[in-house]
Automatic annotation (TrEMBL):
Classification via Gene3D superfamilies: D-3-phosphoglycerate dehydrogenase, domain 3
Keyword Nuclease in annotation: no
SUPFAM superfamilies documented for this protein: Serine metabolism enzymes domain
Cofactor list: [4Fe-4S] cluster
An example Gene Ontology biological process: gluconeogenesis
Organism: Sporolactobacillus laevolacticus DSM 442
Name of this chain's protein: L-serine ammonia-lyase
Similarity comment text for this entry: Belongs to the iron-sulfur dependent L-serine dehydratase family.
UniProt superkingdom: Bacteria
EC number: 4.3.1.17
Keywords: 4Fe-4S, Gluconeogenesis, Iron, Iron-sulfur, Lyase, Metal-binding
Catalytic function, reaction form: L-serine = pyruvate + NH4(+)
Length: 538
């Protein structure tokens, strides 16, 4: 049976659970670094972290989304929710780790990738080529010259068989762990030496491996996604809202229950386990949107990269009468708390790093204002997850598609979720999501390097506050004509044909003189001493 992998609620849409920041640039980079950590046996001594010469933007804008700390923290085996990620430079230097961010002398064949060249304290070396591909998801292309093409969705075992004597032990291991076996392939490295990459749904104990292979000949790479791939995974249940509605009708069950079936088919989890994980997500997001209130608006410090805009908003509301209505004002309270990105206040993306918090800002404010139950809010999260999975199926739900792939998809998910919470039908959920997505088409992804969260702040707050409007439009009977998945087709076509306009260093507001000055501030003031560090001789 072939390995199945398609967009999932907890791997792709509401994942990973992480420290605040960009899911692609902070969580994804830390995951790539964390896999690299496991490619070397002794403690890390030196690391060279290199980008392709064609990817000048990555090196020039390094640090804008904390990707430098992600890579370096992952190399120290910090998980995505580990607050030590913020101090990755300081902790690496305290451990005597020398590191350098640089460019490769020539292209490595994987555009957009990063290459780790590592040296351990025992003289052992390793090389990994991988990439954060958006939303916290990663792709590991090569380890030590073996092309494994692996997503950290399983426990991966890489075996170097230079002498050609491990074929029988490999077969023996697969037979011994037949119930946990997922896939395997035979490989050759760049020197023509044989190797094997075997995937399991559980970590194989070391004692089973050393009984079959010499210790220096194998690497065990960890599964980093919350839902691990197994051979029991069923085909994707639906890919459009129309299919979702049809299956619900055929099974004579609610729209929400069909979404739960989607996740059950992917993960193999029970309904109780799925609901419990959504409750966990809701609890994390609730803490995030209330963090400024609970910690105190005046107590959370500004940073060189991000002022606490919620403090300005709170002062303004207490000094004068805000122009917006009470519901919008409450959504903005929560959205500013989301934007604060307070270290130690973990988040759940949906789809971009703080998207889950912006989405939840709208859902919780509506729940409070209209007296909906907590159970109805959790149902809204489940509906949002279904819409997110459809978005990831048909488009790049990331900045690669422009801001519509981030705040736009977030707004669509929130709009559909609120529509359901307010008693809407599956058809009305689709109408709300389509309208929200249509309104965001054409907006580029153009975060200003060193630009203090602009223009992202304006778009993410707008996504939250407009979600109830699209829900009201759908509930009133407005039909946007174009199904949700067709809008996603348009987004993907636009991404493919207009990449430089949709996302890039010179699109949108990054064309301005001020944005270019901000980029110099990032390069010189923020990252000036962080690109290279040589530890003192020990």
């Amino acid at each position: 049976m072939a390995k199945r992998f398609y967009p999932d609620f907890f791997n792709d849409v509401f994942g990973p659970i992480m420290q605040p920041g960009s899911s692609g640039s902070f969580a994804g980079t830390s995951r790539v670094g964390r896999v690299a950590h496991h490619t070397i046996k002794s403690s890390l001594l030196r690391a060279k972290i290199s980008f392709n010469p064609s990817d000048k933007r990555h090196l020039r804008h390094l640090g804008n989304m904390m990707d430098d700390r992600g890579y370096l923290g992952g190399l120290q085996n910090f998980a995505t929710d580990d607050v030590r990620l913020f101090d990755a430079h300081k902790l690496a230097r305290e451990k005597g780790i020398s590191y350098e961010f640089t460019a490769l002398p020539e292209e490595n064949g994987y555009p957009g990738s990063v290459q780790f060249d590592l040296v351990g304290k025992d003289g052992d070396t390793s090389q990994l080529v991988g990439q954060s591909v958006g939303g916290g998801m990663i792709m590991i292309y090569e380890v030590n010259g073996f092309q494994i093409h692996w997503q950290a969705d399983t426990f991966g075992l890489l075996i170097h068989d230079a002498e050609g004597r491990y074929a029988e032990p490999v077969s023996s291991l697969i037979d011994r762990f037949r119930e946990q076996y997922v896939a395997h392939k035979e490989l050759k490295n760049k020197q023509g030496e044989r190797g094997y990459f075997i995937e399991f749904s559980v970590a194989i104990p070391d004692h089973d491996l050393v009984s079959l292979f010499d210790e220096e000949d194998f690497l065990l790479l960890p599964a980093l996604l919350p839902v691990v791939t197994t051979l029991n995974r069923k085909p994707q249940l639906f890919q459009t809202v129309d299919e979702w509605i049809k299956i619900s009708q055929e099974r004579n069950q609610s729209f929400v229950h069909t979404a739960i079936d989607y996740e059950r088919d992917f993960s193999g989890w029970s309904e109780t386990e799925i609901i419990a994980y959504f409750e966990k997500i809701a609890d994390i997001l609730d803490h995030q949107i209330h963090a400024l209130e609970r910690l105190g608006y005046e107590n959370v410090p500004d940073t060189p990269m991000l002022p606490i805009y919620g403090r300005l908003w709170n002062r303004y509301k207490h000094k004068s009468h805000a122009l917006v209505d009470s519901l919008t004002s409450r959504i903005m309270d929560y959205a500013y708390s989301t934007n604060a990105k307070i270290p130690g206040v973990v988040i759940v993306p949906g789809p971009m790093g703080t998207g889950g918090g912006y989405l939840y800002s709208a859902l919780e404010a509506v729940r409070e204002a209209r007296g909906f139950s907590h159970e109805k809010l959790v149902e809204g999260l489940i509906v949002a997850a279904g819409l997110g999975a459809i978005a990831f199926t048909h488009a790049h739900a990331s900045g690669e598609s422009g801001c519509v792939g981030e705040s736009g998809v977030c707004c669509a998910m929130a709009s559909g979720a609120i529509t359901w919470m307010a008693g809407g039908t599956g058809e009305q959920v689709q109408h709300a999501a389509s309208m929200a997505l249509q309104a965001n088409i054409g907006i580029p992804c153009d975060p200003i390097p060193g630009g203090l969260e602009f223009p992202c702040l304006t778009r993410t707050v707008r996504a939250a506050v407009t979600a109830p409007m699209y829900a009201d439009m759908a509930l009133s009977g407005v039909d946007p004509l174009i199904p949700y998945h067709e809008v996603l087709f348009a987004i993907e076509k636009n991404r493919q044909e207009n990449q430089k306009v949709v996302s890039g260093p010179l699109c949108g507001v990054n064309c301005t003189l001020t944005a270019q000055k901000c980029a110099l501030f990032l390069k010189d003031e923020v990252m000036g001493d962080k690109l290279k560090y040589i530890a003192p001789a020990q």
